[in-house]
């Protein structure tokens, strides 16, 4: 093998970008569904659920978009992934903080429940293959 042809001889096959976008799309579908179910409880619960949904789905979407842009080196890809994860967690916490400051009627159990269900919705992807 000529080293000039292949700079990185070990190829690691990761999940495709299409699968990543399916998971992000599933988060949006599940989050909206939970918000609609919370509307059956009350509009205030639905509004709080929307905060939880946005706190998880928006950073995940931005993270996926950044990963889709990719990196040209394996170390760069690792750096992009790790910094993206830290930024995603920070953005989720920041959105929840903003929700607590902006919405005086926030129902925390509704927000947290929706955030957890939206965050863990990728488990559904395993069953919907």
Description:
By secondary structure, the chain is mainly α. The chain has helices at 17-41, 43-69, 74-102, 108-119, 122-127. Helix 1 (17-41) runs antiparallel to helix 2 (43-69), helix 1 (17-41) runs antiparallel to helix 4 (108-119) and helix 2 runs parallel beside helix 4. The longest helix has 29 residues, at 74-102.
Topology (SSEs and partners):
Blueprint: H1 17-41, H2 43-69, H3 74-102, H4 108-119, H5 122-127
Helix pairs in contact: 1-2, 1-4, 2-3, 2-4
- Per DSSP, the total helix count is 5
Poorly predicted runs are: 3-13
Strand content: under 5%
Task: Specify the oligomeric state.
Answer: single chain
Tally of DSSP β-strands: 0
- The SSE string, one letter per element, is HHHHH
Principal-axes geometry comes out as: flat
* Fraction of residues in H or I helices: over 70%
Give the integer mean of the pLDDT values.
84
Rg from alpha-carbon coordinates: 18 Å
Largest β sheet strand count, sense and barrel closure: none
Structural class comes to mainly alpha
Termini separation comes to 37 Å
Task: Summarize the entry for a quick read.
The protein has helices at residues 17-41, 43-69, 74-102, 108-119, 122-127. It has 129 residues and is mainly α.
